[in-house]
Design brief:
Blueprint: E1 7-12, E2 15-20, E3 22-23, H1 29-35, E4 45-46, E5 56-62, E6 65-66, E7 70-72, E8 80-88, E9 98-101, E10 106-110, E11 114-121, E12 125-132, E13 135-138, E14 140-141, E15 146-152, E16 157-165, E17 170-182, H2 200-208
Parallel strand pairs: 10-17
Antiparallel strand pairs: 1-2, 1-5, 3-4, 5-6, 5-7, 8-9, 8-11, 11-15, 12-13, 12-16, 14-15, 16-17
């Protein structure tokens, strides 16, 4: 007879857990058509892992049957760490370049400033890109595991850095920040003309004298 119940047996960090599996039609009716087109009398089971963060081993158990063990390997997404911001103001300002930590990703600088976001990647990268309010450009490798993204401060808006590890794992939102341009307009000075009223009585006295 076909088993009416099935379980997923997992082993993680030395701990074994027995997880009941649901009947597939209650969750994914389309799955039934794929796994039992020629076996309508058999009941498929399914279990969805909500969030896999560590590697583990599992096997399936139903009645007296047991599957071969399977190993799940987790590949981490590449992320950024030790973020620095380098700023090179326009030449007319007479100011030199500066560098400062930028964990928040905020770029607040004079319009026309050349900004460079420098960071270390947590994994070995194959490529990366930065998406700006006015376009997208590729990242440049600066050192062994150090990368940079350069752009001119022109438009206000958000920017996003995406990374791709050498094994193909991608992180499309590895780092996010915002650009806040500072206006380079000079302060304006306005003068207000006041109307002077001359007393008619005083003017008449001067004429009669």
């Amino acid at each position: 007879p076909m088993p009416s119940e099935a379980s997923l047996v997992t082993e993680l960090d030395g701990t074994v857990r027995l997880i009941p599996m649901a009947v597939a039609p209650s969750l994914h009716p389309e799955l039934v058509k794929q796994v039992q087109p020629n076996m309508p009398d058999r009941v498929p089971f399914i279990y969805e892992f909500p969030n896999i963060t560590k590697p583990f081993t599992f096997h399936l158990a139903a009645g007296d049957g047991r599957s071969l063990p399977c190993r799940v390997t987790v590949k981490e997404k590449p992320t950024v760490e030790e973020v620095f911001l380098e700023l090179k103001p326009p030449a007319y300002t007479g100011k030199g370049a500066s560098s400062q930590p930028a964990p928040s990703g905020l770029v607040h600088a004079l319009v026309g400033t050349q900004a460079t976001v420098v960071f270390k990647a947590t994994r070995e990268l194959a490529s990366g890109a930065i998406t700006l309010p006015d376009g997208t450009s590729s990242l440049k490798q600066r050192g062994a595991n150090s990368w940079e993204a350069s752009f001119n401060v022109l438009k206000e808006g958000a920017y996003v850095i995406s990374l791709r590890a050498k094994d193909g794992v991608e992180n499309k939102t590895a780092f996010e920040g915002r650009i806040l341009p500072q206006s380079d307009a000079l302060p304006a000075v306005a003068f207000e003309m006041q109307t002077l009223n001359i007393s008619q009585t005083r003017a008449s006295r001067n004429l009669s004298a």
